[in-house]
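Example for tutorial group B:
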């Protein structure tokens, strides 16, 4: 039983951990400071580097770091501060945009419930934190710190076999976090586990495991870059090694090693709790050797440090008990009664303080319940307004679609109207062309009739009328052909001409458009070739065709108006 108590006291100080992400270097630095017992320096970093930060994540993690910092203090008002900090983290998590913040809030409650000895609430909060963190790949640092806390509670309850896998998980997450302090602390926890195992079931296998993990711990110390943390690890190793010497029945060598550590650190005010542990453990080893005088001497040196805020009540009570036992066995009942009475008063005072703290905790839980109710109401209102916004948005979308559809329909109607308008214009243009052609025919007939007046013989008149009738039929065919091929031809011809074209010139243009050569035109019009050439030359001038350009190419390439 003494061996178990010695190892618990020696190694308990190595559980330095707090929540942070794998990526946050400020957290890594603060963690190393807390491990090295640079509490005030770490507190300044927490206040000015994290809590004062404008970054939402750093701010909430600053409060999480503060909650762990407070869990390492042993002042009377510390639990009250922990409650307030836990409430603050909950408020920030509720307002924040990151779902992972809920894990940070739960982590703060894990620390609080541990301080309040609320085992059931502790386990529930621990499991909720794990469930949230399982959704994230970069929170290994927080994972292993959770297991540091739980494993410390597990060792206190001596239920190692059931919980051994938690120590293995602790090391796994520590390695994933790549933080050397985390890794060595996890290795030290495994050494601690096997030390308790050896204390309950004395066997060589457990002792070999202790030595194996302590050797790993020693080899990894050089990987820690922060020198104060590295120094603390050397101290941890030497202290733990002294404990293994006790297991191996080498008590004298163990005392020698512990006294050496004591001498090296006795003037360091930040090591008061460590000095308390060293005095206490040297006294226990002397007590094991039945050297009660030396044991009492070192117990009293530890007792002299009792007023320091670094010494927890749970460490004083067993010390007072050991001093009382030694005085009682030595026949000094008055002194024994003095320390027994002080122990009883300390237990009573602790119970009273616990009641006050529990009352404050219940008030906090009540405020938390009220806050959760308000939050539920706010969420209900938020969902209501969100529903209104969504409904309004859908209405707006539907109206927009309806307007778009009506615009599309109107556009189609306008397109149909435009098409109809174009069709009507084309029909009007065709009517104009027909009228123009009819005008051309009428003009030709008038010229023929004038020519008839000059004829005297009746058979000549009949012959001329027959020929004219035939020409009318042929030219009707020509007109229809041109209109089918080029509906806008005659109109374009008018536009291109600089002077008004005569009906005959229009006929010549039509013949040219249909690729009729001079002989064909001469035959059709009963004119000689020279008259055809002169007519074409005049037409060329009226159309403004250059000397080098062919009238045939010009007329045959007249484009349809778009």
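The residue assignment follows.
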């Amino acid at each position: 039983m003494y061996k178990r108590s010695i190892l618990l006291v020696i190694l308990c100080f190595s559980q330095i951990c707090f929540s942070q992400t794998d990526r946050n270097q400020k957290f890594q630095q603060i963690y190393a400071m807390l491990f090295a017992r640079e509490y005030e320096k770490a507190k300044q970093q927490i206040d000015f580097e994290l809590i004062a930060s404008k970054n939402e994540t750093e701010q909430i993690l600053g409060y999480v770091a503060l909650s762990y910092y407070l869990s390492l203090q042993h002042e009377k008002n510390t639990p009250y501060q922990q409650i307030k900090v836990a409430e603050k983290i909950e408020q920030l998590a509720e307002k924040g945009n990151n779902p992972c913040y809920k894990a940070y809030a739960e982590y703060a409650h894990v620390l609080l419930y541990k301080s309040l000895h609320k085992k059931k609430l502790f386990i529930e909060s621990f499991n909720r934190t794990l469930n949230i963190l399982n959704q994230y790949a970069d929170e290994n640092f927080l994972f292993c710190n959770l297991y540091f806390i739980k494993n410390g509670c597990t060792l206190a309850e001596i239920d190692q076999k059931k919980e051994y896998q938690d120590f293995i998980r602790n090391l796994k997450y520590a390695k994933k976090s790549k933080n050397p302090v985390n890794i060595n602390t996890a290795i030290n926890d495994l050494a601690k586990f096997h030390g308790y195992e050896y204390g309950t079931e004395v066997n060589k296998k457990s002792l070999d495991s202790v030595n194996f993990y302590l050797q790993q711990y020693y080899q990894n110390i050089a990987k820690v870059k922060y020198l104060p943390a590295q120094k603390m690890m050397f101290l941890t190793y030497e202290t733990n090694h002294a404990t293994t010497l006790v297991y191996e029945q080498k008590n004298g060598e163990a005392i020698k090693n512990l006294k050496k550590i004591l001498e090296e650190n006795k003037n360091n005010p930040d090591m008061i709790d460590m000095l308390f542990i060293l005095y206490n453990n040297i006294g226990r080893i002397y007590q094991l050797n039945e050297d009660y005088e030396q044991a009492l001497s070192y117990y009293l040196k530890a007792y002299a440090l009792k007023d320091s805020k670094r010494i927890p009540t749970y460490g004083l009570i067993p010390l007072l008990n050991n001093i009382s036992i030694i005085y009682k066995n030595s026949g000094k009942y008055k002194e024994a009664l003095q320390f027994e009475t002080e122990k009883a008063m300390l237990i009573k005072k602790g119970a009273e303080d616990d009641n006050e703290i529990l009352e404050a905790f219940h008030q906090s839980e009540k405020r938390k319940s009220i806050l959760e109710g308000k939050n539920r109401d706010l969420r209900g209102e938020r969902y209501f307004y969100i529903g209104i916004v969504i409904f309004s948005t859908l209405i707006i979308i539907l109206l927009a679609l309806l307007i778009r559809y009506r615009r599309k329909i109107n556009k189609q109607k306008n397109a149909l109207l435009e098409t109809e308008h174009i069709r009507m214009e084309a029909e009007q243009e065709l009517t104009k062309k027909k009228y123009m052609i009819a005008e051309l025919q009428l003009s030709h007939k008038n010229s023929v009739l004038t020519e008839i007046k000059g004829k005297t013989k009746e058979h000549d008149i009949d012959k001329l009328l027959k020929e004219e009738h035939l020409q009318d039929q042929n030219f009707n065919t020509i007109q229809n052909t041109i209109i089918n091929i080029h509906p806008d031809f005659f109109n374009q011809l008018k536009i291109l001409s600089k002077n008004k074209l005569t009906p005959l010139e229009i006929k010549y243009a039509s013949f040219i458009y249909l690729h009729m050569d001079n002989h064909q035109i001469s035959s059709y019009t009963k004119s000689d070739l020279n008259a055809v050439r002169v007519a074409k030359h005049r037409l060329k001038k009226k159309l403004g065709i250059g000397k080098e350009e062919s009238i045939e190419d010009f007329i045959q390439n007249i484009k349809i108006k778009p």
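The radius of gyration is 54 Å. Compare this with the pattern of hydrophobic and polar residues in the output above.
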